[in-house]
C-alpha cells in the first residue's frame, strides 16, 4: 500500500466497532465474536473498545492467505 492509498490504514489509527462492521460488512455480534476469540486484536480505553487499523489489515491478510492455501 502506498501513502496515497485511501484504503491504507493510517499508522496508529484506532477504529470503532461500527467502523470495523462497515469495513468487513459484518454485524455487531460477528465482530464481537472475532474480538472475543482473539482473531481480531483490540484495546480497551475505559469502556470503549478500539481496533488498531493494522490489526484489521493483518486479520484480512491472514484470512486471504488461509483462503489461498
Q: What's the topology here?
A:
Layout: E1 14-15, H1 17-24, H2 28-36, E2 43-45, E3 48-52, H3 53-68
Helix pairs in contact: 1-2
Explain this structure.
The chain is of the alpha+beta class. The protein has one domain (14-68). The chain has helices at 17-24, 28-36, 53-68; strands at residues 14-15, 43-45, 48-52. A 3-stranded antiparallel beta sheet has the order 1-3-2. Helix 1 crosses helix 2. The longest helix has 16 residues, at 53-68. It is globular. The two termini are 23 Å apart. The mean pLDDT is 90. Pfam families: HTH_17.
Shape: globular
> Level of helix content?
40-55%
**Low-confidence regions:** none
How many separate domains make up the residues?
1
Strand content: 5-15%
Q: Please write the string of helix (H) and strand (E) elements.
A: EHHEEH
What would you call the structural class? alpha+beta
What's a concise summary of this model?
It holds the Pfam family HTH_17. This protein is an alpha+beta fold and 69 residues long. It is built from 3 helices and 3 strands; from the N terminus they run E-H-H-E-E-H.
Please give a handful of descriptors for the protein shown.
single chain; 69 residues; alpha+beta; 3-stranded antiparallel sheet; 3 helices
Amino acid at each position: 500500500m502506498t501513502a496515497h492509498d485511501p484504503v491504507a490504514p493510517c499508522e496508529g489509527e484506532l477504529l470503532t466497532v461500527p467502523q470495523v462492521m462497515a469495513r468487513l460488512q459484518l454485524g455487531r455480534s460477528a465482530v464481537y465474536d472475532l474480538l472475543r476469540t482473539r482473531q481480531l486484536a483490540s484495546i480497551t480505553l475505559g469502556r470503549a473498545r478500539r481496533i488498531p487499523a493494522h490489526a484489521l489489515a493483518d486479520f484480512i491478510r491472514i484470512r486471504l492467505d488461509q483462503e489461498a492455501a
